[in-house]
Specification:
This protein has 3 domains: 216 residues, FAD/NAD(P)-binding domain; 83 residues, Guanine Nucleotide Dissociation Inhibitor, domain 1 (Orthogonal Bundle), CATH 1.10.405; 126 residues. Helix content is 37%, strand content 19%. It is built from 19 helices and 19 strands. Strands 7-6-15-16-17-14-18 form a 7-stranded mixed β-sheet, sandwiched between helices. Bound molecules: flavin-adenine dinucleotide.
C-alpha cells in the first residue's frame, strides 16, 4: 500500500532565473508557501554576477530597461520593493559608432531624432515619423494593431528608403533581440525600443546580481524556501498531473503546482517522462543565438576617456546587418566588424578597485563543439580585444584580469540549450504558429521565463521575463480559485 507523502509546499519553482523568482514572489504575496530549487550556487541565471579578484562583472544582463515608466517598474511597485533596488540611471543608453560618426540613443525621442538628423539631414522627416510612431502612447491600442502581422523589415520599409538608417536600426535590433529584420516580429523590436531606449539605462548598484538577490530576500523573509546547488532531475507525475520533483541526489519534494523556469527542451524532453504537445512545438521553434564575451579588468581609469557610461555598439560598415550573424566567416577569417561594450564600473565604482575599470566585450555566437572552443577561444578573444583597442586605445595593454565565456559557458551556467541568451528567436513565421503556453498541457505544470513569453512579446530580457513570472502567478492563482488583486499592466 502506497503512503501519501503530505505536500509541504503549495508550489515548487524549478530554477532561480528572474522569471522563476518573480513568479515565486507573487505567489508568496498571495499567501502560498514556495520552494525554489536552483542548480547553481547563486540565484539569477543570466542575471547573475561574476567576481574575478577585485573586479566584478555581469555574466549576462548588463543593464535593465522599463524601470521607471514600464512594466518592470510596475512589477517592483506591486511587490513593494521598487525603492529597495538602487540603480544608476544613464541616458543615453547606447552610443552607436557608425562609419558616419556617433549616434546616441536617448530616452527623449526628440533628442534621438536630432542625433539621427545630424548624420542624415535629408532623412529628417522619415526619422521623426518613425520615432513618433514607436513612442506613441497606449501602445496596445495604437501601435500594436498596425504591426502585429508585420516583420521589422516591413515596418522599416514603410518609413525609410535610406539603406544606412535601415542598417543601423536593424543592427540595434539584432544586437538586442538576436534576430534579423527580415525574420523578426516587429513587435519584439519595437518593444525593445520602448523598454530599453525610451525608459533606459538602469544599472543596479552591486551589479546585476543585486536584482535576483533582492527577490531571494523577499522569498526568504516571506517564509518560503530556496535551495541552491539543487538540480532537479525529474518532474514527478501521476495520471497526467504533476505531484513533485526529484533532485539529482534522489531527494524528493512534493507539490501539486510546479513552475518550470528551466529551458523548454530540458523541461519537456528530460525532466518529464511523458510526451506532451510542447515537445512538437519545440522542434519547430528556433533558438536565439548565444554570445562570446570577454570580461576584462583594466588597471586604468576610463572615466575621462569616455564622456558617458553608455553601452557602445560599434560597426565598421553598413553591411553589418548581413555580417553580424556570419560567425563562421568571423571566426574562420578573423574578420570581425562589430562589437558591443559595457562598462560596469563606470556605473558603480564598487565593481572595481582603485578607480580601475571593468569592461564587457560581446559578440553574438553560434553554438560550436567544445573542441572548437578549446582550439579557438584564445584566438577569438584576441580578435575582440584588438578591435576594442581600436575603439578605446590603451585598452589592450592595461588588461589586468580576463575571463572568456563561450556559448558552452552560458549553457553550463544556465542550462539553456546551446547557451541561447534570449530563449526563442522572435521569428515571424514560427512564433506566430507555435507558442508554448504558460499553463502547460500536463495538469499542475506552469512555465515562466524567456522560453515561455510567446503569448505576449516573444523575446527575452528582464522586463519581459519578469512579466512572464507575474503572468504565471496570475494563471496559477486563478486555477487555485484565488483572487488576483492587481490591475492590468502592459508596454
Ligand atoms: C550574455 C547575455 C547578455 C544579456 N544582456 C541582457 C541585458 O543587458 N538586459 C536584459 O534585460 N537582458 C539581457 N539578457 C537576457 C536575459 O538575461 C534573459 O532573457 C533572462 O535573464 C532570462 O531569465 P529566465 O527567468 O528565463 O531564466 P534564466 O536566466 O535562463 O535562468 C534559468 C535558471 O534555471 C536554472 N535551472 C535550469 N535547469 C534547472 C534544473 N534542472 N534544476 C535547477 N535549476 C535549473 C538555471 O541554473 C538558471 O539559474 C542577456 C543574456 C545573456 C546570456
Amino acid at each position: 500500500m502506497s503512503v501519501k507523502v503530505p505536500n509541504k509546499y503549495d508550489a515548487i519553482i524549478i530554477g532561480a532565473g528572474v522569471g522563476g523568482l518573480i513568479c515565486a514572489c507573487y505567489l508568496i504575496k498571495s499567501g502560498l508557501k514556495i520552494l525554489v530549487l536552483e542548480q547553481n550556487d547563486k540565484p539569477g541565471g543570466c542575471c547573475a554576477s561574476l567576481e574575478l579578484g577585485a573586479y566584478k562583472f555581469d555574466i549576462g544582463v548588463h543593464y535593465l530597461g522599463s524601470l521607471k515608466k514600464g512594466i518592470l517598474g510596475k512589477i517592483l511597485d506591486e511587490l513593494e520593493i521598487a525603492n529597495l533596488l538602487k540603480v544608476h540611471q544613464f541616458d543615453p543608453v547606447e552610443r552607436i559608432i557608425t562609419p558616419d560618426g556617433d549616434i546616441c540613443l536617448r530616452s527623449d525621442p526628440a533628442l534621438t531624432i536630432n542625433e539621427f538628423r545630424d548624420k542624415f539631414p535629408q532623412q529628417e522627416k522619415n526619422i521623426k515619423r518613425f520615432f513618433d510612431f514607436v513612442s506613441q502612447k497606449d501602445f496596445f491600442l495604437t501601435v500594436y494593431p498596425k504591426i502585429k502581422k508585420m516583420t521589422f523589415r516591413s515596418v522599416l520599409d514603410e518609413f525609410f528608403e535610406d539603406k544606412k538608417i535601415k542598417a543601423i536600426l536593424n543592427a540595434i535590433s539584432i544586437w538586442n533581440i538576436g534576430a534579423h529584420a527580415d525574420k523578426s516580429l516587429a513587435l519584439a523590436c519595437i518593444a525593445m525600443f520602448r523598454e530599453y531606449v525610451m525608459d533606459p539605462g538602469y544599472y543596479p548598484y552591486g551589479g546585476s546580481q543585486s536584482y535576483p538577490n533582492l527577490l531571494t530576500q523577499f522569498i526568504r523573509t516571506g517564509g518560503s524556501d530556496m535551495k541552491l546547488n539543487a538540480r532537479v532531475a525529474r518532474i514527478l507525475n501521476d495520471n497526467n498531473s504533476v505531484c513533485g520533483v526529484e533532485l539529482e541526489n534522489g531527494e524528493q519534494y512534493r507539490a501539486d503546482v510546479i513552475v518550470t523556469n528551466a529551458d523548454a527542451h530540458e523541461t519537456f524532453s528530460s525532466l518529464l517522462n511523458v510526451k506532451t504537445d510542447e515537445l512538437d512545438k519545440i522542434n519547430y521553434l528556433v533558438r536565439s543565438p548565444s554570445m562570446f564575451v570577454v570580461y576584462a579588468g583594466l588597471n586604468i581609469d576610463m572615466q575621462s576617456a569616455l564622456d558617458n557610461p553608455a553601452n557602445i555598439l560599434y560597426f565598421s560598415d553598413y553591411n553589418i546587418d548581413e555580417t553580424m550573424f556570419d560567425t563562421k566567416r568571423i571566426f574562420n577569417k578573423d574578420d570581425l566588424r562589430y562589437l558591443m561594450m559595457s562598462f560596469p564600473s563606470l556605473h558603480d565604482p564598487e565593481q572595481c578597485y582603485n578607480s580601475h575599470t571593468s569592461v564587457g566585450l560581446y559578440i553574438l555566437a553560434n553554438y560550436e563543439s567544445p573542441e572548437f572552443w578549446l582550439n579557438n577561444k584564445d584566438r577569438i578573444a584576441g580578435l575582440i580585444v584588438d578591435l576594442a583597442n581600436k575603439i578605446i586605445p590603451n585598452l589592450k595593454n592595461n588588461i589586468e584580469k580576463k575571463f572568456v565565456a563561450t556559448p558552452i559557458t552560458f549553457e553550463r551556467f544556465t542550462l539553456n540549450t546551446n547557451g541561447a541568451c534570449l530563449g526563442w528567436l522572435p521569428d515571424f513565421e514560427r512564433t506566430k504558429l507555435y507558442k508554448i503556453k504558460q499553463r502547460c498541457s500536463i495538469k499542475g505544470l506552469y512555465a515562466a521565463g524567456h522560453w515561455y513569453t510567446g503569448e505576449f512579446v516573444p523575446s527575452g530580457g528582464i522586463p519581459v521575463v519578469s512579466f512572464s513570472g507575474r503572468r504565471a502567478a496570475r494563471i496559477i492563482l486563478g486555477d487555485l480559485g484565488k483572487q488576483w488583486k492587481y490591475k492590468e499592466i502592459g508596454l
